[in-house]
Amino acid sequence: MNNFIAGCFKTQNKNKATEYQYFLPTLLNRAYDLNNAKLLTVLEQATKTLGELNTYGELIPDIDFFIKMHIFSESVASSRIEGTQTNMQEALLPEADIKLEVRDDWGEVHNYVKAMNDAIDNLKSIPISLRLLKTTHQQLLSGVRGQNKQPGALRVSQNWIGGASINSAHFIPPHHQHLNVLLSDWEDFWHNNHRIPILIKLALCHYQFETIHPFLDGNGRIGRLFITLQLIEAQFLSVPILYLSKFFEKNRSAYYQALDRVRQSNDINQWLIFFLEGIVETAKQSKDTLKNILILKKDYETRIIGLGRRAKIAKITLDFLYTDPVINVGQVQNLSGLGYAASNNLVKDLVGLQILKEITGQSRNRLFVMGGYLSLFERE
What we know:
CATH topology of the largest domain: Fic-like fold
Strand content: under 5%
Structural class: mainly alpha
CATH architecture of the largest domain: Orthogonal Bundle
CATH class of the largest domain: Mainly Alpha
Order of helices and strands: EEHHHHHHHHHHHHEHHEEH
Number of domains: 2
Largest sheet: 3 strands, antiparallel
CATH superfamily of the largest domain: Fido-like domain
């Protein structure tokens, strides 16, 4: 990778009044020589920790209960990188309980969740491809900010990153005339049979996609979303339990600087090492979260034993809460088949056992959160 050439700058509109330079990345689909000792060491560590996480996830009973929360956690973190302010608890509230000034943020998070779920389902019949990118991007931007920026369609105009105008832009991606060739190359590279480790391929694909910036909006979110999809397709993950957005959010400046450094000085090794270190850190955190979930689950199931005959209904409620940790009495009533008064009493019992906590401070239309469980995802 020491001979990696990221690309070159091209001049567009050779008229002094409108002239600008965009970056045209070199095509990816070729052979690479991995000869950096530090890179190979981190690659080995990343492959090992990711394998351990995947194996651990496969051994957890009823892991589907917890996957939705992993996806919500990813959607909140990825959206925050783009400037939204919604936190995990707000993201899990019903739309009616969201303040008007942050409802757009809430909508973007929920679109991300739906886009991720649909993409995972679509992956069963559609491979990683431009087609899947467009379909997922359309879902991501539909009905929220960015809905007027051609959801699901490649841009047909120049975009830029940073700056009030193209003249003050921090980075100008390739002109739209190059998009079809670049994205076809991106797709071919992912599916080629060259002897390139999958995690190196994945890191190169993410760098290249963010450099191409093929859509008018949502490029960061869709690029991060596809990291998980590619890990699933490559069979490095059997269930979607690893997401890098929290690592990128925590190291936001380093994330953008690492991408910039490739374009500016061809230093791809530092980007690959940064990306792989993110895999290592995130895989360890995700495994710890799963371990803590199992400890908490066992503790909660021990607490409800004292409820006697109602313990069975409490267990059904707990199973629901692992998927949706914010609940109201009406939902408990639907789950349990009990009357309203009995459901209300069950909620009181769960509050008394310090499993649930009321979060509205109201006497009516109250909402309760399983805070201990939610906190496991907030502190990842």
